Amino acid sequence: MKKISVAPENPQFRIVEIFESLQGEGWNTGMPAVFVRLGKCNLACGWCDTDYLKFGMMSLSDILGRLKTYTARNIIITGGEPTIQPHLGTLLDALKAEGYFLCIETNGLKPAPPQIDYVATSPKACYAAKYETNCIAEADEVRIVADGDVVGFCENMERKIRARHYYLSPCEQNGVMNIYDTIRQIGLLNSRPGAPVHWQLSVQTHKWAGIE
User: What contacts 182, CB < 8 A, 6 or more positions away?
Assistant: First the structure.
């Protein structure tokens, strides 16, 4: 008989940080939101700008209490990789019960939870082989970081993930973003005869604005 896992009444979560700001990238740029950044990831991209291994444990009740101190009614669940977080469904159920609009930022290797209202997935070209066997099928937006020649990977993600919006983002390393190469690749994608989707540029505007 399969053992059923029951979540604790007040589970603990790996929290890197919780803060209120504006969404800085993608379709929802400028949207007021509270970011709940969860610890740990199932990938290890060399250019990642988040220290997702530095986290503390925080109970569900303490998270809900913290969120009540903010004014934004949109919550962005991010990481690290939030879909690997134990008891994530319990957290999301509690947030939905409070009436929040829930967004998730995920690498797309695992399905997005059903409680999520808006899915932003960022498949990683440096782990292209993983996406041949594990990849979500739908999202609201796809954001791919141009950490090299990613045109072929973008074409593959077009076929695998049905989305409303597709973005290419520059890769920042040592404070330098490869803007030229990113827009060059966007041009290549959009100039294909009969291109099935239209790719747009997404940059981390919050860094330019000097906010989190």
Answer: 146, 168, 169, 170, 171, 201
CA 210 to chain centre: 20
What amino acid occupies position 148?
G
CA distance 95 to 103: 11
**Contact assessment for residue 117 and residue 153, using Cβ atoms and an 8 Å cutoff:** no
Q: What span, in angstroms and rounded, lies between the C-alpha atoms of 171 and 144?
A: 9
94 contacts 54 by C-beta, under 8 angstroms = no
User: Any residues with CB less than 8 A from the CB of 207 and at least 6 apart, and which?
Assistant: 24
Q: What is the Cα–Cα distance from 108 to 165, expressed in whole angstroms?
A: 15
Tell me the pTM.
Answer: 0.93
> Could you give the 3-state DSSP secondary structure of residue 167?
strand
Give the Cα separation of 8 and 110 in Å (integer). 23
Dump pLDDT digits (tens) for 6-50. Answer: 668 899 999 999 999 999 999 999 999 999 999 999 999 999 989
Alpha-carbon distance of 27 to 154, in angstroms, equals 18
**Distance between CA atoms of residues 51 and 4, nearest Å:** 33
Q: List own/partner pairs for 86-92 with CB under 8 A and 24 or more apart.
A: 86/11, 86/13, 87/7, 87/8, 87/11, 87/13, 88/38, 88/113, 89/7, 89/113, 89/115, 90/7, 90/11, 90/60, 91/11, 91/13, 91/60, 91/63, 92/116
DSSP strand pairing (118-121 vs 101-106): parallel
